[in-house]
Amino acid sequence: MSRDIEDRRTYVCGSGCCLYWILAVRAALSLQGWDPCARGVIHPRDLNQSGNTMETPCLSGLVRRLRSGDPTASAEVTDDGSARIVWRQEGLPHSLTLLTTEQDLCAAVTAIGQDCRDALWPGNSVEEAGLNLLLVHLDEVIATRDTSQPLLIDSTGLVWPEARPARTLDIGGTDLEWSDTPVPEQGET
Predict the structure, then answer these.
(1) Range in 52-56, 97-101, 135-139, 184-188 with the lowest mean pLDDT
(2) Does residue 168 belong to any structural domain of this protein?
């Protein structure tokens, strides 16, 4: 493993479990030509706003990226700037809901991007890198946590919900034991 990849793996989580997600996101971005943090307002057909036209560049980028997996993803922004984003994820029986504000999302994306850009996406802006890693975290939460309740992004990033209860398998009694040293098979030396 090259030193560069090893440094990235250690930087992200210490064990490398996030590296594959990051590389997948990075590959998808380059193939799609997405500009995840393009500045501007979400088009009225893309965002249900209650009477205001506040600029929402971070929400706009997040919704655009979520729509790559679910074209029906929707977002509603209230007059006080609170946003509710709803989308479907393959393999889940329920819709996912994400609560945030434009201000919190932009602060989180910037903070995360400042911490990870140089190590993970040196060719991207701080905002692009922050949104990339935030989406990796979102994928990890969806895969490992209870998402039946709304998810939350505050000014520091994604607030991780409680872990799913571990499933136990009832396999009955067994004669197998775990060993630190492998025992040679019959006929091996």
Answers:
(1) 52-56
(2) no
Domain carrying residue 118: 36-159
Give the three-class secondary structure for 183: coil
pLDDT exceeds 90 at position 175: no
How many structural domains comprise the chain?
1
> Mean pLDDT across the chain, nearest whole number?
76
For the record, the structure tokens of 164 come out as 């799913």
CA atoms within 13 A on the CB side of 117: 16
- Tell me if 7 is assigned to some domain: no
- pTM for this entry: 0.63
Strand residues in the chain grouped as ranges (E): 48-49, 74-77, 82-87, 96-101, 151-154, 157-159
3-state secondary structure of 99: strand
Residue of 105, 103, 100 whose CA lies nearest to 86: 100
Cβ atoms 62, 105 nearer than 8 A: yes
